[in-house]
């Protein structure tokens, strides 16, 4: 029997086994690194092998005949051009508020209102975090103001057991139950927040594109175990220029894994405009090279995003990976360290301000007689109060101890580090003035 202490991996006898127990979804989500399980290793590997063989046996055959037979002989050389590919943009509510009633998703009135509340909450959170940084209470922050419809509309489709790997879509985690306190702590660099994210099957990646292979790998595990969940990766247009994105898409397509790639094309990779980043006219078309179906959606239309991603999720559940390009815009700077006036003009920003996703959705709610059930000022006040309470809690977070320097490196501290920790504590006990040279991480 093998004693294992993590849902994902554990080093035993210098060998790394990647395992997960066969147990109910609720138990899987609550299992953390402090728990202990027993596995019959040969049985676990046998189950994994059987599942892989089952999946490969059921995989649809798309291999071309060898050697390939051309459709016709002779004639001129013919090119395959992106001009041959028609990439439509899915939209349900136009910027002026026009829509076809029959095309609107079949949500109940409270769900329609929830979408609005989550978008407003996201905007309030972003504004307050930028204000905190300007007061020196936060090192930096990357606002996603303007992308509320893209983030909320997509996240609202996911189930609690689905996995979420995030780039610039922090506020999507609020829908899953992550608190504002933990998000503030994350932006202050405190590890406790990441543990909270993990409890909600969510993680944030700062290194651009680095989380996409993780999303695909998670989907592979889901497929092997036959679970009815999906893995979803949020990323920006800039991430599509990284090697990790290529690897993730290629593996997902080749193995037909249950992963949904959600690209927020907010027009800029920091200061690099989309038009200079790639020669492709759309990002969605790139998915075709990996054998993955794609959707391009108006990212300022929350109902269109919801409709597209809900549809895509059903495909993904069947082992058909999907790539969604959400066309949106980052109204604020890339981060609070950025100056967008150096690479875009006021006219461009004003045009996108006019295309505000919250105002567009409000026009729909008014037309459907749903607006009367929403008190906008009360929604804003509730989000403000929640942020105030979260900030107070975050400010009360205890200072780090000497043990924390060693605690998060190994599951079980090796003898050498145990010796160093004991020596460090003995030094501080003998010479307490040394505490004056220990700098605690500031709250800002």
**Main sheet makeup:** 7 strands, parallel
Order of helices and strands: EEEHEHEHHEHHHEHEHEEEHEHEHHHHH
Percentage of residues in DSSP E strands: 5-15%
What is the molecular shape? globular
The end-to-end span amounts to 48 Å
Classify the helix fraction into a percent range.
Answer: 40-55%
The SS-based structural class is: alpha/beta
User: Radius of gyration, rounded?
Assistant: 24 Å
Order of adjacent strands in the largest pleated sheet:
5-12-13-9-8-6-7
Number of helices: 16
Overall pLDDT level:
86
Q: Regions with pLDDT < 50 over 5+ consecutive residues?
A: 1-39
Count of DSSP strands: 13
Describe this protein's structure.
With 444 residues, the chain is of the alpha/beta class. Helix content is 42%, strand content 12%. The chain contains 16 helices and 13 strands. The chain has a seven-stranded parallel beta sheet, sandwiched between helices. Helix 3 (109-134) runs antiparallel to helix 13 and helix 8 packs parallel to helix 9. The longest helix has 26 residues, at 109-134. The radius of gyration is 24 Å and the shape is globular.
Can you give keywords for this protein?
13 strands; alpha/beta; 12% strand; 444 residues; disordered N terminus
